[in-house]
Amino acid sequence: MSTVLNDLIPEIKRSQAIGGKPNLKPWWDELNRLREEYAIDYDQPCDKPTDGSLAPQWVIKQLSDHADPSTIWVSDVGQHQMWSAQLIDFEKPHSWISSGGLGTMGFGLPAAIGASVGSQRDFKGRKPVWLIAGDGSFQMTSEELTTAFLDHAPVKIAIINNSVYGMVRQWQTLFFGQHYSQTNLADGDSKEGGEFFDVPDFVKLAEAYGCVGLRAFTEDEAIDAINKANEINDRPVLIDFRVWKDAMVWPMVAAGASNNEVAYRPGTQPLLHKGVDDGDQA
């Protein structure tokens, strides 16, 4: 990388000296227009949970609003990863850790532990670390709660629990006629003695590893749990947020489509400057 940059930077400077810097104002004007006209939000009717559960976007926004400005944010892989990138207010550099487009489910907890331990070494005092994970991705490496507890890494874990593999379910909803296959983790149909049967019970799982476990079904419970978690700094703490399983991530690009076909919402493709039929939602 350094070799490439050493060759590239002088060439860029030479080109700018000959022709001057390009006028980027028209491009920035277009970007700002798109940002204003197609702002990231979750206030549309299609974003409102129909089952009384929490909106996952709202949960992530509350995590951001109630966090210490020095917080290091880590995401696992799934819908929550995109919502986190869109909605968290990053105030400082070196505060966002994600595996990007690699799709490495289970990345989050080990990365959060590393961030917690590393921040104590590299900064003056340990920084708070929030991990945002899905119930599916978290189970790929949940056993590392042992490492977090034994190594005194007080990570704070937000499980965005929609009881499904949300990203796959979104594709099955949009492109496969709502034929759901191998995506339900615990959709409420499982009953034992008339009660909802959690697979797993994340609160009990956290407690079994010596961590603090909390759960939130309502907005008031969510705010209370976030405040409690922010006050706990002697061990890991996990919050099981029960969110709507049909929430969707936007914008998105359908398989086989080019980036200029990105859909802002169902039926809206800004870069094509035209809508699409409801049956072809992306």
From TrEMBL:
It holds the Pfam family TPP_enzyme_C. One of its GO terms (biological process) is isoleucine biosynthetic process. GO terms for cellular component: acetolactate synthase complex. Its EC number is 2.2.1.6. GO terms for molecular function: acetolactate synthase activity; flavin adenine dinucleotide binding; magnesium ion binding; thiamine pyrophosphate binding. It is an enzyme of class 2 (transferase). Gene3D superfamilies: 3.40.50.970, TPP-binding domain (3.40.50.1220). InterPro entries: AHAS_TPP (IPR039368), THDP-binding (IPR029061), TPP_enz (IPR045229), TPP_enzyme_TPP-bd (IPR011766). The keyword Secreted does not apply. It comes from the Bacteria. Keywords: Transferase. The keyword RNA-binding does not apply. Residues 76-241 form the Thiamine pyrophosphate enzyme TPP-binding domain. Belongs to the TPP enzyme family. This is Acetolactate synthase 1 catalytic subunit.
